[in-house]
Prior knowledge:
The complex is a heterotrimer of chains A (272), B (180) and C (356).
Chain A: H1 2-10, H2 36-50, E1 57-61, E2 76-79, H3 85-95, E3 100-106, H4 107-113, H5 115-124, E4 129-134, E5 137-138, E6 144-145, H6 164-167, H7 173-178, E7 183-190, H8 194-212, E8 217-223, H9 227-230, H10 234-248, E9 252-255, H11 258-266
Parallel strand pairs in A: 1-2, 1-3, 3-4, 4-8, 7-8
Antiparallel strand pairs in A: 5-6, 7-9
Chain B: E1 2-10, H1 15-28, E2 32-37, E3 47-55, E4 67-72, H2 75-81, E5 85-93, E6 108-111, H3 114-120, H4 127-138, H5 144-154, H6 163-176, E7 178-179
Parallel strand pairs in B: 1-4, 4-5, 5-6
Antiparallel strand pairs in B: 1-3, 2-3, 6-7
Helix pairs in contact in B: 1-5, 3-4, 4-6
Chain C: E1 4-9, H1 10-20, E2 25-28, H2 35-44, E3 53-56, H3 60-72, E4 77-81, H4 83-98, E5 103-109, H5 125-129, E6 140-142, H6 147-164, E7 167-173, H7 174-178, E8 180-185, E9 211-212, H8 219-239, E10 243-246, E11 253-256, H9 259-274, E12 279-284, E13 286-288, H10 292-299, E14 304-308, H11 315-323, E15 329-332, H12 342-355
Parallel strand pairs in C: 2-3, 2-4, 4-5, 5-7, 6-7, 11-12, 11-14, 14-15
Antiparallel strand pairs in C: 1-8, 6-13, 10-12
Amino acid sequence: MAEATGIKEIIKPENLVYKKTKIMTDNVLSYCPGCGHGTTHRILAEIIDEEGLQSQTIGICPVGCSVLLYNFLDIDWQEAAHGRAPALATAVKRLLPDRFVFTYQGDGDLAAIGTAETIHACNRGENILIIFINNGIYGMTGGQMAPTTLPGMKSSTSPYGRDVKLMGNPLKMTDIVATLPGTYYVTRQSVHTPANVRKTKKAMKKAVQYQKLNKGTCFVEIVSNCPSNWKMTPVESNKWMEENMLPYYPLGDLKVPAEETTQKTINPEKND
Amino acid sequence: MTEEIIIAGFGGQGVLSMGKIMAYSGVMQDMEVSWMPSYGPEMRGGTANVIVIISSDRISSPIVRNFDTAIILNQQSLDKFENSVKPGGILIYDGNGITRHPERKDITVYRVDAVEEAGRMNSPKTFNMIVLGGFLKIKPIIKLENVIKGLKKSLPERYHNLIPMNEKALERGLEIIRKV
Amino acid sequence: MEKELRLMKGNEAVAEAAIRAGADGYFGYPITPQSEILEYLMQANPYTTTGMVVLQAESEVAAINMVYGGAACGKKVMTSSSSPGISLKQEGITYIAGAELPCLIVNVVRGGPGLGTIQPAQSDYFQAVKGGGHGDYHLIVLAPASVQEMADFVDLSFELAFKYRNPVMMLSDGAIGQMMEKVWLSPQKERSKTVPEWATTGKPTTRERNIITSLDLDPNAQESFNKKLIDKYNEIREKEVRFEEFQCEDAEYLFVAYGTSARVCQKAVQLCRAAGIKAGLIRPITLFPFPSKRINELADKMKLILSVEMSAGQMVEDVMLSVNGKVPVYHFGRMGGIVTAPDEVVEFLKSKIIGG
Lengths: 272, 180, 356
């Protein structure tokens, strides 16, 4: 009892350093401990809140671990069929051009079954933000090989490790869409350290600004982890990600607006 | 009154557009019309045909197998459709390139050498209007003035300067068609 | 405002009628014999006049999912395709039905299976009226039989789609799509400014967030939803049956046919009557809901019923269910892109009367 009173003493407005953003609902996240989805949701919620976009935003959820994303952010949502989110977003943005429209998709959704929808939405330069969570595995269905699974990486459908001769190579969708004239800003980030969280938030904020200016497709990949299906503790999974995923999927901007390239050289902080 | 017509010939010969002008002319005369083309790859250089029905009543089937009139513009079409003319019906054909001429005795056969005549008139593209003129001589179901109106409707405005030429061709058709 | 008379192809009539109905968006992909719809809309460029969005998608799959996204915003949106393309759209269609969204899907049917032929057929009846995609659902299915109805049913489809929050399919075929007839076009309607309360347009502080989804992981909740859908379909069966009858008053032989086949059978009725056979025709205008009750009533005074369709015999199953054994029911029809000829229908009927 004494301890409980102690906690109550501490939880006082003047002591608060961190709290749930308004846009996050009270629903308990359905993600495994240590998963990057929760952090990414939070970043998105903070941006929608800070930019005052709640009444302007339509989000498109994928099929995958984040299929229930609509339970966690207090905005209008559409649940797409597997891989089709960019097609939905295309129509939403064209019919409601003044709204903020984004898709949130995993690697199976975006880089396998939804490859065509992703590439063509980017190629048309749809004025949307595509958030791409890449953890190299199908999480929801139980750890099958994804298009982004690394060579040699084990999964339930590559139990002896991904043999690229038999199973093909990991697909770098972010690199591909960066080559398309329709994309305006393409970047690869992560959320596994506080510094990276801050960088990701900055990148997503940029994307929001660009959408307001009708610049074209913004594409933010977040290299993430999957402790459960990688069969690691959260800490181990982040370490494994740094040592294995990041060399294959290096962080940083892949395409930045021309006007910012000059800025970038003036302001070295902007470099990753 | 219901007139069920098939027009058949080479793709690109103006078969479909002749049908279209007929249909538009019917509309101008306040008739019911349907225009049912053959479509698809066979249209590109192969044979093309269109069924045009003009009627004073609501049209039932836009697709029929037997016709009151067959307008035939090449040998393949003649071979294919000669037997589709209803007994007592009419077959109009252009003799150009025809080696086996119509043989049926229970229909009336007319010949209009429109390709040749259009060449003589120095306007080969109006050949289908000569044929149409011939048809209207035999079956005056549409007034000529309504054909001109229909022509105006079916031709894009930039081609309207060609209308007098087409009118001439139409009248020429009336003159040169002859019973075989 | 007065109606405007034009001579148009069925496909063109759909496109023009969509603009005039105040549609907000069309998303399509080329396929014969319906490409004129997309071509006409691109040519008309309605974005500059009514604000209607027209987009050529990268696939039929993308097109139907664009329809999903647009419909989820409460907009009047549509797509069109022909049989193989409609098969590709089935994923999106079942999601749209599951999310209870209104939209219009036009199928200008060609012969199948597989790549089949580009010529007209009616072999997608099962796919259209029995669901088509996975799960327990129905589309409302309208069967236009003329270019005029290709135009008129666009507006009707949107009306029904929004009334019931249900996808509507216009089941046409290559013949009606490609042929030209006179059509009276309705005056231009303004695009609707009302936003349905369920639409996802951005959450204001005044309401809860809207979620458009067809997912429910709780089996009990999903079953309740399935029951709700059944109730909706029953209401549609009760209120929305449409059909037309030709010379049924004194008929002893009844044709049942929709779309192009109904036109063929009208002619067959004339030929029969000329030959002293008392034939009549009932033309279902809605294929779902099917005019079962009326067919059952008519069966009482018929000697036999002949279902005529350009398929191996699909609608005939619904005719048999409707007739429920009262009189013999037969099927007749050509396939593979061949349109049944009126005299063939008459010959077949005669053979059944004699053989009867």
